[in-house]
Amino acid sequence: MFTKLVIYVNINSQKQKCFGKISKKEEYHEKKLIAALLSAAMVVSVVPVFASDAAADEETATESSTESPLAGKKIAYIMYMSSATIFQMWSDSFTATAEKLGMEASTFFCNDNADTWKSTIEQCAQGGYDGLMVSHGGQEYAYDFLSGILEQYPDLKIVTFDTPFKDANGETAKIDGVTQFFQQDAGFAESLVQAILDMYPDKTEAGEPVNILQVQQGAGYNSPFDRRQVGYEPFETDGKIKTVERIAPIDDQNATSSMRDVTAATLQKYGEGDIDGIWCCYDAYAQGVYQALREANSDIPMVSVDICNEDIQFMQEGKNWKACATTNWTSNGEFACRVLALEMADQYEDIEAASCYYADPGAWMEIPSVIVTQEMVTSKEGINIENLAEVAGEDYSDTSWMPTCDWMVSALGH
User: How far apart are CA 372 and CA 322, in angstroms?
Assistant: First the structure.
């Protein structure tokens, strides 16, 4: 960019018109004056040129730093389980976030089939996808399988949800460049136990344990349940609760109906006041527990992990089901896309800067848990999982824990 500056100097002619012929001395001084003016003009003309170039460079740099570097990339969300409302919410948010970042996104549900999960990942890798968000892979095969995929396709980026890695010796393992994230399962357990304790202030103030019937599988059944147990056990150790019994469904293929039968049989073994509350590790189990309580006309309060429309409807009946611990599944989809996008941009430092990142064990993130209470879902007509944010409080809608960077802020608003 150049700036042209023209100065017309005609001092001699003007003086000649007024005073006649000028002397040599006067001519000498006037030449010096003209030279000085021209020199000043050059300074004036040059400075704006450089300033303009610097401003343009700065503007270009700003634009490049806030533009998504992932425009045109192709990513996929691959879910081990069948489609459900919460997983569709995840998919919709994942896709919307990807589009705002200039990417194309696809979703695949694998209907609880490990072979389908593996083959879908293989097909996407072969099909030229740039990034994959894979969910709920089994700890007995995920580490070896995904390691093999990345050996074949080293440029592919992968993030995982609820997919623990175990090596051939059963030890926790890591895959370089792969970020694992989970729900804050221990936090689920803690908040739900505390919710039951809050129902019995007299007992807790007197130092008496609250008696809990725990609905939970044994160790090693699956990783999320194990992490929930980690949050539950300290309350036992501290004497704040007493687990009167642990129960679980007998038939995993029909978990809800099986849990109803198991709970009905268990309730017959205990008298009035023997059980203060029921803690459920999973809402599909909790639905069976709730049915058994209603059939027995029992007023024992219960709480559970996870949430869906059926859970909300049961809570809205105003009976036993008092609270659910959950995450915001719309936020989860955005979060997953953000982490994958930052991996693809090789900005791992921005992933590590997020408040939900755990340096130990590293490349590990946890989505914060929140409590949704019976009071919340009955405070307004027509509440369901899609509009739950209207009543669930600020923590449910908070996104400050998500990783971000300049170009994400520009594209996504935060």
Answer: 9
Q: How far is residue 97's CA from residue 380's CA, in Å, rounded to a whole number?
A: 29
- Find residue 104's DSSP bridge partners: 74
Task: Calculate the CA 282 to chain-centre distance.
Answer: 21
Distance CA 125, CA 156 (A): 7
Cα-Cα-Cα-Cα dihedral of 384, 389, 395, 401, to 10°?
110
Q: For residue 397, what are its two tokens?
A: 């809608």
Mind listing the pLDDT tens digit for each residue in 180-222?
999 999 999 999 999 999 999 999 999 999 999 999 999 988 8
**Cα(271)–Cα(279) distance, integer angstroms:** 18
Q: Per the structure block, which two tokens stand in for 195?
A: 């919710």
DSSP 8-state class, residue 306: S
Q: Of 131, 243, 117, which Cα lies nearest the Cα of 177?
A: 131
- Percent pLDDT > 90 in the chain is 79
Listed in order, strand segments (DSSP E) in 229-301 are 241-247, 277-280
Please give the structure tokens belonging to residue 338. 């953000």
Instruction: Return all residues near 297 (Cβ < 8 A) that are at least 6 apart.
Output: none
Q: What is the pLDDT of residues 347-395, one digit of tens each?
A: 999 999 999 999 988 899 999 999 999 999 999 999 999 999 999 999 9
Q: What are phi and psi of 179, to 5 degrees?
A: -95, 125
What are the angstrom distances between the C-alpha of 201 and each of 88, 204, 207, 209? 40, 5, 10, 11
Going from the C-alpha of 137 to that of each of 37, 224, 385, the distances in angstroms are 78, 12, 25
